[in-house]
Design a protein that fits this description.
The complex is a heterodimer. Chain A has one domain: AhpD-like (Up-down Bundle). Chain A is built from five helices and no strands. In chain A, helix 2 runs antiparallel to helix 3 and helix 2 packs across helix 4. The longest helix of chain A is centred in the C-terminal third of the chain and has 21 residues. Classes of the chains: A mainly alpha, B alpha/beta. The interface between A and B is medium-sized, with 13 and 14 residues.
């Protein structure tokens, strides 16, 4: 194995069903239902997935949902804004913990 | 070790289109021809990166007067339901207005395909008025509601000019509900990926074009880019060709085959020769396997004869499938 991540492995995702088919079926059925059009369009769901893919830093998901967003009619501006949303939440989550830091520091400081 | 393609494969693991059809027990043969598509030439004001004809300003092949006469005579001999005029940019072909008027005399439904910029930059308002008077249906290219995507496919500034022309067409009644003048949009993806689902794309285009620009249209049709001409060159140069062909082939849907446009269309090129579809024209595969000139034909191409195929045929059979009128419903 030259690298942990091989783009070809994404196409082998279904192999995960080999030794636990019932669980895989439940997961993939659920997955398909989640991404079907509902109150949100398939395009909107793909943009959310793209943002989350960046947040969890999954190369497979980034690959899959970049393509999915393009195929559902999103443009690079929208996709970049979605990544910024993920970044803002991740960055904001770090920064808001600064309040804890400040509270602790203030309690300890003269 | 790298695997090599066999005689029935276009790349390892991907069958040729003909062997794919055979494996499903299908054959691609002509049905009754209902549409006559006329490709009046490869001269174009734009050089779109997805163009399967490699049309552009540097191409000077256009239909001459004698061929136009032979084509209009043929259209009059055969009562096609629809005549569909395309290019290149048909607006740039000398005598195109008279040609359209002559076709409208013999055929009830006449379609005219425009890239909008040619209509905006090279034609006066009189042409649009004439089309409106003849009841010509317009098919206008607009790949995206995003200027960056549209311009990356069709050239800098194309989106802005396209929107300006759409407004003018709306002003002439085209695309306006109740006018009876159809203005349909055609969207191709701006890259090596499949188009959005037609219905969802139409909803979004309608909403956003109205909201941002006050533009209305009749219907939107989505098409997959066909791996021929300039688009195929780009696919190869960018390292996308293999994956794109694989994606198209993986999406093969046997249910699309009966509805494919090549079965019910006769396509005439700028010289007057016949093809089953615009893609076989681009690939140089004539109808019936050998060149037939329009002047030699008295009736529509016979039903039952085989349609020549290539790997690009997978672009019309992927997913829901595509025809000249967009995704197969």
């Amino acid at each position: 194995m030259e690298t942990y991540y091989d783009p070809a492995d994404l196409g082998k995702f279904a192999e995960i069903a080999k030794d636990a088919p019932e669980l895989a079926t439940k997961f993939f059925d659920y997955y398909q239902a989640v991404f079907s059009e509902g109150e949100l369009t398939e395009r909107e769901k793909a943009l959310i997935a793209l943002a989350v893919a960046h947040s969890v830093q999954c190369p497979y998901c980034i690959d899959a949902y970049t393509k999915s967003c393009l195929e559902k009619g999103s443009n690079l501006g929208e996709m970049t804004e979605a990544v910024h949303v993920a970044n803002a939440i991740r960055g904001g989550a770090a920064l808001v913990h600064g309040v804890q830091m400040r509270k602790i520091a203030e309690k300890l400081s003269l | 070790m790298t695997a090599t393609a066999t005689a029935t494969e276009i790349r390892p693991g991907v069958r040729t289109f003909s062997s794919c059809l055979a494996s499903h027990g299908l054959a691609l043969t002509r049905d009754r021809a209902t549409t006559l598509q006329i490709n009046v030439g490869l001269n174009c004001n734009l050089a779109c990166r997805h163009c399967h004809h490699s049309a552009g300003p540097g191409r000077h092949e256009v239909m001459g007067t004698e061929t136009m006469k032979a084509v209009t005579a043929y259209a009059a001999r055969v009562a096609f339901d629809t005549v569909d005029v395309t290019g290149g940019a048909p607006e740039l072909v000398p005598g195109i207005a008279e040609f359209i008027a002559e076709l409208a005399r013999s055929t009830k439904r006449v379609l005219f395909r425009t890239n909008l910029v040619a209509l905006h930059d090279h034609c006066d308002a009189a042409l649009v008025e004439r089309f409106a008077a003849l009841g010509v249906t317009l098919f206008a290219s607009l790949p995206s509601i995003n200027a960056g995507q549209a311009d990356s496919q069709r050239g800098s500034g194309v989106f802005e000019t396209s929107v300006a022309m759409l407004r003018r067409l709306n002003g002439a009644g085209y695309g306006v509900a109740g006018s009876g003048l159809e203005l349909n949009l055609v969207a191709n993806p701006s890259g090596a990926f499949l188009p959005a689902a037609q219905q969802a794309a139409e909803r979004r285009f309608r909403q956003e074009l109205a909201r941002r620009y006050g533009v209305a249209f009749s219907s939107l049709f989505t098409f997959a880019n066909v791996p021929l001409g300039r688009f195929r060159e780009w696919l190869a140069a960018s390292g996308n060709l293999g994956d794109y062909l694989e994606k198209l082939a993986a999406g093969f849907n046997p249910c699309t085959v009966p509805g494919l446009m090549c079965r019910r269309q006769a396509v005439i090129d700028w010289r007057g020769y016949l093809f089953d579809c615009d893609f076989n024209l681009a690939a140089g595969l004539p109808l019936g396997g050998s060149p037939i000139h329009v002047s030699e034909l008295n009736g529509p191409p016979p039903a039952g004869i085989a349609v020549p195929t290539g790997d690009y045929c997978y672009a019309c059979t992927a997913g829901a499938g595509f025809t000249c009128a967009g995704a197969i419903s």
